[in-house]
Specification:
Blueprint lengths: L6 E3 L2 E5 L2 H11 L3 H8 L3 H10 L1 E2 L1 H11 L12
Antiparallel strand pairs: 1-2, 2-3
Helix pairs in contact: 2-3, 2-4
């Protein structure tokens, strides 16, 4: 089951992303975080923050998924 709920965080909506999945996809592709940030149109610092916190805005999740060539649901954290 995929966690699709939004949480209120600092006045905005955020989605829970699965940092392990993102790191695994990067490794599988031989891609660096710098390359993913560039392909996604976000800063390297923002990408690191997203991976560390495990949350981001829905539009950022969309950018990351596009940069990885996957659907957004592929990078969302799954409920146990």
């Amino acid at each position: 089951m995929v966690v699709c709920s939004y949480e209120e965080h600092l006045g905005g909506e955020h989605v829970d992303i699965n940092a392990v999945k993102i790191e695994t996809m990067l490794a599988d592709r031989g891609m660096t975080k710098t390359a993913l940030a560039s392909l996604s149109g976000i800063s390297r610092q923002n990408l690191s923050t997203v991976v560390r916190r495990g949350t981001c805005e829905p539009k950022t999740a969309g950018k990351l998924a596009a940069g990885l060539g996957v659907g957004v649901s592929d990078i969302l954290r799954e409920a146990n």
